[in-house]
Amino acid sequence: MDWIVQHLWLVPALPILAGGIIALLKQRHRVLAASLAIASMFLSFLLSLGAFVHLLSLGHGDGARMVVNFNWFQFGSEWVRLGWVLDPLTAVMLLMVTFISLLVFIYSVGYMAEDENSTRFFCFLALFAGAMLGVVIANSLLLLFMCWEVVGLTSYLLIGFWYANPKAAAAAKKAFIVTRIGDLAFFLGMAWLYAQTGTLLFFDGGAGCLERSALTALVAHTTIFGLTVSTGIGLLIFCGAAGKSGQLPLHVWLPDAMEGPTPVSALIHAATMVAAGVFLIARIYPLMSADIASLPALTPTVALQVVTWVGAATALFGSLVAVAQFDIKRILAYSTVSQLGYMMMGLGVGGVSVGMFHLITHAFFKSLLFLGAGSVIHGCSGEQDIRRMGGLRKFMPITFATYACGMLALCGFPLFFSGFWSKDEILHAAFAWSVSRTPFFMGAFGALLTAFYMTRQLCYMFAGSSRRAQISPMPAHGGHAAGDICHAHSPHESPAVMTAPLVILAAFAVFLGLIGAPSWPWFQSFLGGEPALLNFGAFSGVLPLMVASSLLVFLGLGLGWLLYHRKRIEDADARDALEKIQPDAFSVLGHAFYIDKLYDATIVRFNAALAYICDWLDRWVWSGAVQAFSYLVLALAWLDNFFDSKVVNAGFDAGCHTVSRGGRLLSFLQGGRVQSYLKMIGLALIVLVMLMLWGARA
Amino acid sequence: MTAFFLIVAALTIAGTAAAMSLRNPIHCILALTLSLVGFAALYLQLGAQFVGFTQVLVYVGAVAILAVFAIMMTRSANPPEGQSHQAAFSSSWLTGGAIAAVIFAVLAWCILSKSTPMQTAIQQPDVSVNQIGDALMHKFALPLEIVGVLLTAALIGAVILAMPERRKTL
Amino acid sequence: MSPLNAYLLLSALLFSIGLTGVLTRRNAILVLIGIELMLNAANLNFIAFWRYGPNPAALTGVMFAIFSIGIAAAEAAVGLGIILAVYRHTKTTDLDQINTMKG
C-alpha cells in the first residue's frame, strides 16, 4: 500500500485537529484561528491532490480501488470494523470538497472580519470540513453515518451561529430535526443491511456489502410488496439522503438555513453537505441498482425509480418556488433544492457519473453564486431583499462579473459554461429512460424556469439604477457588528480577500465542463473505470438534445429579460412583474406551496400535543408518584419521630420519673429519726420470727 | 414459783415500767436502779451469785451513775421537765407501743406453746468464783482478751467523744 | 408453769417494756437506758437457761452473762459519749428534733 493511501485518514483528521485546537483558543485569537483552519485545509487539499494523482497512475477498473480496513472494537465474538477507501469517486469528491472549503475559508476571513465570534466560526467550519471529508473517505457505512451525524451537528451549529437571533435558532433546530427524520430511516436501513450481510464495510476484498457475494444474497431475498431486500435497504438509506439533500418532502429546512452566515450557506448548503446525500447514493449505487438477473439490470430497480421520481419532483418544485422569492439567499436556496433534484434524477436515470458530474459542477457555480450573494450583502450593509437593490453592476463590477458567470453556468448556457454539459447529460439520460419520459419533461421545464428566475434575480440586483436611496438606512443585521467599517450609505465592492475566491470559482464554473463533455468524457470514464477517449464524433448523437436544451435556456433568459429588464424596475415597493400577471399563482409559489404551513398544522402541532401530554404525564403522574412516595416517607418519618419522642423518649423519661418518684417516696422512710428506724427493725423482727415459726411448724 | 420470786419480779417490773414512763429523767434513773437491783436479786435466786454481784457493781455502780451524769450534763439548756409543750414521749408513741406489744405477744406465745422437758428437781449448781476464774483463763481466754481490747477501745472512744472540740484557729 | 417458763416470761416482759421505752421516749439517754434494760432481760434469759438447762457445769450461761455485762457497760459509756457530743452540736437531746440525717 502506498503512503498516500495508508495516510489518507490525515485528510479529515487535519481539519478536525485544527478545529479542536481552535476550540481551545480565546476569542481574540481570530487571526491564529483563521490561519490554523486555512492551513489545515490547504494541507488536506494537497493530500487530496496527491491521492488523485496517485490514483491516476494506477489505471482503471476495480484495480483503481484501494481500501484500508481496521478493527475498531469487539462485541461478543464479532469485530466492528471501519476503514477508508480511495477510488475515483472518493478522489474527485475529496478534491472538490477540499478546494471549495479552502476558498470559502479564505472568503470568510473577509466576510466575518467585523464579527467578534469569528474564532468560534472557524472552529465549526474546520470541524465541518473534517467531518465531511470523513463521509467521503469512509469505507464503512457505520463510519459514514457517524461522520454524517457530525456534519449534521456542525451544520446546526453554523446555521444557528448568531444564536441570539431567534429566527436563526429556530432554523437551526428545524434543520437538525428534519434531517434527523431522514437519518432515522438511514439508521434502520443500516441496521437491516448489517443484519442481512453481517458487515458494514463497503469493500473488503470481496466480503464487503457492496460486493458481488453480498449483493447477490441481498437480491435473492424479498420483503414486503415483493421488493428485494437490496431495494428495501436502498430506499431506507435514500430517506436519509433525501433529508440531507433537501428532496421533497424533507426540503423545508434548506430555505430557513439561509439564516446562517453566507460562507456557511456557500459551503454547506450549496456545495458540500447537501451534496453528501447525492454522494451517499452514488456510493451505495451497486446496492440500489442490484437486480436478480445480473448487475446492472435492463430495467431500473424500484429503488432507482423512486430516486428518479423524487428527484424530478424536487427539481420542478424548487424551480417553481424560486420564481416568486425576494430574498437573494432564498432564491439561491430553492435553486439548490431544484439542482439537488436534478442530481438525484441524474443518479436515477444515468448512473453514478451523470449525477456526480452535475454535483461537481454545481458545487463550483453554486458556491460562487452564494459567495457572490455574500459579497452583495456585505456591500449593501446587510440588505438581502432584491427589491431594495439595483444597479449594483456599477458599484461592484467584479462581483457582478463573477455572479453572471455563475448564473449562466446554473442556467446551463450552452457550450461555454460547465452547467450546460452536466445538465445536458442528465436530460439526455432522462430522455433515454426506459420507464417513462415524464422526468425528462419535468427536468426540461425546470431548466426553463431556472433560466427565468436567475435572469429575474440578476435584473433586480445588478441591472437598472440603485433603489437604495429610496429607503432609510437599514440597521446593521446579519454579519455586521457595531463599529463596522462598511457602514457606507452607498454600496461598495468587497475587499480582495473576498473577490479573489469569486474569480477562482468563476474560472472553474466556466472550464470545468470541459472534462465531462461528450467529446472527451474524461470524468465519466474516470468514474466508470474505463479509459477516456477523445471522440468528436460523439457529438452527433447528442446534438439534437443539445440544441433543444439550448433553446429552452434562451427562452427562459428571454422571458426573464422581457419581464424584468425591458421595463426598468424603478420602485422598490412596486409589485413584481409576474405578480401583476398572475397574482394568485405568484402568492402560492411565494409561500412555497404552503408546505411549511401544512407541516406546522399537522406534524408540528401533533408533536406539540404529544409533548404537552408527556409534560402532563411527567408533572402529574410520575412526579405525582414520586411526591406520593416522598409523602409516604415523610409520614413514616413523622411516625418514627412520634414513636421516638412520645413512646421511647417519653417512656424512658416516665420510667426515670417513676424511679425518681419512687425514690422520693421511699426517702420518706428515712425520717432521720432513730426511733422510726428502730420501729422498722422491730417490725422486721416480728415478721422474721413469724416466718421461722410458721416454717418450723410446717 | 415461790413468793420471793414473785415479789422480786413485781419489783423489777415496776421499776422497769417506771424507768420507762416517768417524766423526769432523774426519776427514771432511780427507778432503773431499782430495776437493776431486782435483776441482781433474780440472779442470786438462780444461783449465779457472781453475776448478781457483778450486776450490782457494774450496772448500778457505774452505768446508772454514768446515766445520771449524762442527764445532768445535758440539762443545762433545757428547762426542767414537765412543761406542757415538751412531752416525754415522742409523737409516734402509739406505733412503738404496738410493736413492742406484738413482740411480747409473739415471745409469750413461743414460750407458752412449747413445753421443754424440765428437770424439776435440779439441784442448785455450786459455782465458785474459782471455777469462773478458771473458765475465764482457760476456756474463755480468747473472749476475755477480746473484751479487753474492746474495753480499751471503748475507753479511748469515749474520751475522744467527750473531749471538747478543738477550735480551728487561723 | 415451770420455773423456767416463768423466768422466760418475765424476761420477755421486761424486754418488751424496755423496747417500749426505746421506741417511745424522747430523751436519748432514756432510750439508752431502755437498751440497757433489754440487755439485762436477755442476760436473765441466759442465766435462766443455764440454771435449768442440761449442762450447768459448763458455765456457758454465766460466762455469757458476764461478758454481756462488760460489753453493755462499755457500750453505755460510748453511747453516752455520743449523746454528749450530739448535745454539744444540737443543744438538745430530743430525738424527734435530731433528724438531719433524713433522706
Question: Can you offer a commentary on this structure?
Answer:
The complex is a heterotrimer of chains A (698), B (170) and C (103). By secondary structure, chain A is an all-alpha fold. Chain A contains 27 helices and two strands. In chain A, strands 1-2 form a two-stranded antiparallel ribbon. In chain A, strand 1 and strand 2 form a beta hairpin. Chain B has 170 residues and is mostly helical. Chain B has six helices and no strands. Chain B has helices at 3-21, 25-46, 49-73, 93-113, 129-137, 141-162. Chain C has a single domain (3-90), classed as Helix Hairpins (Orthogonal Bundle). Helix content of chain C is 76%, strand content 0%. Chain C has three helices and no strands. In chain C, helix 1 (3-24) runs antiparallel to helix 2 and helix 2 (28-52) packs antiparallel against helix 3. The chains are: A mainly alpha (698), B mainly alpha (170), C mainly alpha (103). Chains in contact: A-B, A-C, B-C. At the B-C interface, helix 1, helix 2, helix 3, helix 4 and helix 5 of B face helix 1, helix 2 and helix 3 of C.
- Mean pLDDT metric of chain C: 90
Distance between the termini of chain C: 48 Å
Largest interface: B-C, 86 and 74 residues
The biggest beta sheet of chain C reads:
none
Query: Structural class of the helices, strands and pairings of chain A?
Result: mainly alpha
**Major β-sheet annotation of chain A:** 2 strands, antiparallel
Stretches of chain C where pLDDT is under 50 for at least 5 consecutive residues are none
What's the end-to-end separation of chain A, in Å?
Answer: 121 Å
The shape of chain C, in one word, is: elongated
Approximately how much helix is present in the residues of chain A?
55-70%
| SSE order of chain A, one letter for each helix or strand | HHHEEHHHHHHHHHHHHHHHHHHHHHHHH
Proportion of residues in β-strands of chain A: under 5%
| pLDDT averaged over residues of chain A | 83
